[in-house]
């Protein structure tokens, strides 16, 4: 088993019945501990929390021992009054005080050479990393509350670092945020003409690598999209032009098409039109 990417989560919700997170030296729970930010929460909803069968009790006891050894605080145990399902909420420590006070170093602390941010081709280890104490280290501070977090430059971005657009990282972040704020406002919210409050179901598809058969993808979109449903595509101009031609051939309404430099945006709406004769497509045959 390999690690998740280091993403410093606020909270993690886990719901698998009778799943023993203390197996393999507690590696699974220790991995959750690694990706949670200091003071982050783990929310566990499973039968060991609210049932008293022998297997559930055994798992709960093992979980209790492991979380105490990891210095996690059991914040609350609640139970739904209707269906009886229970939820246990734990909190990761925000300092290293508890780690240093432990009479038994189990689970052990990871070696100083073990990079907590390493993820690619790094196997899981049954150890814990210390909470970062440097105020500029990523994960050492709790970020801004939502939604202010979206526009606040992360504290760990330094001017000495170069961003993806070549500017100092903090400036790069601000410029990128303002750019996408304008894109969302001018196109998705106001330019396309969709009343988003009336949209119930959406599907987001993003593909960067590998490419695809455009006709096959469009045929599948046509199959799953309800009549008068809308497709919004942001891609290079060549792809946008190809999709626009396909949409027109299927009698879809082109609600908006826009291009700037080499990037384009397309919004099309499926119509009630259906072909009078069915055609078997080679890529649709299993």
Description:
The chain is of the alpha+beta class. It has three domains: 9-142, Rossmann fold (3-Layer(aba) Sandwich); 144-190, no CATH class; 200-269, Ribosomal Protein S8, Chain: A, domain 1. It contains seven helices and seven strands, in the order βαβααββαααβαββ. The chain has helices at residues 23-35, 47-50, 54-69, 97-101, 169-189, 214-224, 237-249; strands spanning 9-14, 36-44, 73-79, 86-91, 230-236, 253-260, 263-269. A four-stranded mixed sheet has the order 1-2-4-3. It has a three-stranded antiparallel sheet with strand order 5-7-6, covered by helices on one side. The model has no long low-confidence stretch (mean pLDDT 84). It is found in: Membrane. It is an enzyme of class 2 (transferase). It is a single-pass type II membrane protein. Its main location: membrane. InterPro entries: Put_SAM_MeTrfase.
How would you concisely characterize the structure shown here?
With 286 residues, the chain is an alpha+beta fold.
Main beta sheet, described? 4 strands, mixed
Task: List the strand order in the largest sheet.
Answer: 1-2-4-3
Uncertain residue segments: none
User: What form results from the Cα inertia axes?
Assistant: globular
What string, H for helix and E for strand, traces the elements in order? EHEHHEEHHHEHEE
Q: What is the multimeric organization of the chains shown?
A: single chain
Number of strands: 7
- The number of domains: 3
Q: Report the end-to-end length measured between terminal Cα atoms.
A: 33 Å
Name of the top-level CATH class of the largest domain: Alpha Beta
Round the mean pLDDT to the nearest integer and report it: 84
Cα-atom Rg, whole angstroms?
A: 25 Å
Keywords: Glycoprotein, Methyltransferase, Signal-anchor, Transferase, Transmembrane
GO molecular function: methyltransferase activity
Family: Belongs to the methyltransferase superfamily.
Protein name: Methyltransferase
């Amino acid at each position: 088993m390999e690690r998740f990417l280091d993403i410093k989560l606020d909270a993690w919700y886990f719901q698998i019945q009778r799943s023993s997170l203390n197996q393999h030296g507690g590696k699974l729970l220790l991995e959750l501990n690694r990706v949670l930010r200091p003071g982050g929460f783990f929310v566990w909803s499973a039968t060991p929390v609210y049932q008293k069968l022998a297997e559930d009790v055994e798992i709960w006891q093992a979980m209790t021992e492991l979380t105490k050894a990891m210095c996690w605080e059991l914040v609350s145990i609640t139970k739904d009054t209707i269906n009886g399902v229970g939820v246990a909420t734990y909190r990761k420590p925000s300092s290293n005080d508890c780690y240093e006070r432990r009479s038994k170093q189990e689970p052990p602390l990871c070696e100083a050479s073990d990079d907590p941010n390493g993820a690619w081709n790094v196997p899981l280890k049954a150890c814990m990393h210390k909470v970062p104490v440097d105020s500029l280290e990523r994960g050492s501070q709790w970020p801004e509350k939502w939604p202010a977090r979206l526009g606040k430059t992360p504290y760990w971005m330094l001017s000495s670092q170069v961003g993806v657009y070549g500017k100092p990282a903090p400036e790069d972040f601000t410029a990128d945020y303002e750019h996408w704020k304008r894109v969302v406002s001018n196109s998705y919210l106001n330019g396309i003409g969709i009343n988003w409050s009336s949209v119930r179901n959406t599907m987001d598809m993003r593909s960067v690598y590998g490419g695809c058969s455009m006709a096959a993808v469009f045929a599948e979109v046509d199959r799953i999209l309800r009549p008068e449903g809308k497709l919004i595509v942001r891609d290079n101009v060549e792809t946008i032009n190809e999709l626009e031609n396909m949409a027109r051939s299927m009698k879809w309404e082109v609600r908006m098409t826009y291009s700037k430099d080499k990037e384009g945006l397309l919004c099309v709406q499926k119509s009630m039109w259906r072909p009078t004769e069915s055609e078997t497509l080679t890529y649709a045959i299993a």
